[in-house]
What we know:
Blueprint: E1 4-7, E2 10-13, E3 20-22, E4 27-28, H1 29-47, E5 51-56, E6 66-68, E7 80-84, E8 91-95, H2 99-106, E9 110-114, E10 124-134, H3 140-156, E11 161-165, E12 171-181, H4 182-199, E13 204-205, E14 217-220, E15 230-231, E16 247-248, H5 250-255, H6 266-276
Parallel strand pairs: 13-14
Antiparallel strand pairs: 1-2, 3-4, 5-6, 5-8, 5-9, 7-8, 9-15, 10-12, 10-14, 11-12, 11-16
Amino acid sequence: MTPITEVAGRRVTLSNLEKVLHPATGFTKGELLHYYATAAEALLPHLRDRPVSFLRYPDGPDGQVFFTKNVPPGTPDWVGTTEVPRSEGPARMVLVQDLPSLMWAANLVTEFHTPQWRADAPDLADRLVLDLDPGAPATVVECCRVAVWLRDRLAADGLTACAKTSGSKGLHLLAALEPTPSTEVTAYAKVLAVEAEADLPELAIHRMTRSLRPAKVFVDFSQNAARKTTAAPYTLRARPAPTVSTPLTWDEVESCTTASELAFHAEDIAPRLARHGDLLEPLLDTGRAGSLP
């Protein structure tokens, strides 16, 4: 029998709790659901009012992995949705607004990805994101060096950068913005990426061309485009181990010497939240949002 539990007054169907989803550690679906329940207080503010794209991996990372952007069939009527403009016509997407909708979505086995804008203001970004992706043999260590340069460059323009791991190989830098057209944010982010390459030619590159990226950190500015999404803070990733996109202190970024120092798993997050709180909380404070120069 498929278990049903009550979450904040909503009946949520759960399934396959013993199924192993992250084979490197034997991490099960039940453990995945427990992780999201314990991380919810920090995660939900970063999802709220943003249409969510699901990168689903119901049979683990070695099974089928696929994006779901439209509201999935069978979505309960109490899960929030919103109409989202698209070039081919408007579509409806899920809003994960509360703990019941988070647990319903987590039961689908998914990464959570969001745009840099809110549902009530499509194409107006309230966050800037730079995705730092290392080309082997570069690792997150080299990403950290580029991140520090970008942090200081953003500070020169009055923007405060926060950092998190991608949960995969690299880093994400984010900064809160006053609502700004996504096209303008993308153009500004490209300027930063080009400047990083010019100032750190041995480390950074702004072009996606694979042949140019070995041993370099690709500064991906394109995720600021209105149609793009980025892995949300605290989301588990579809990897062999249950890695998490984890907020960092700048001391951790500046002192990183090995990639393993910034590899965080689901069990690491509760202790980090107890010690640091949500290190990305500045992104939620509209009073700290900056404007582009």
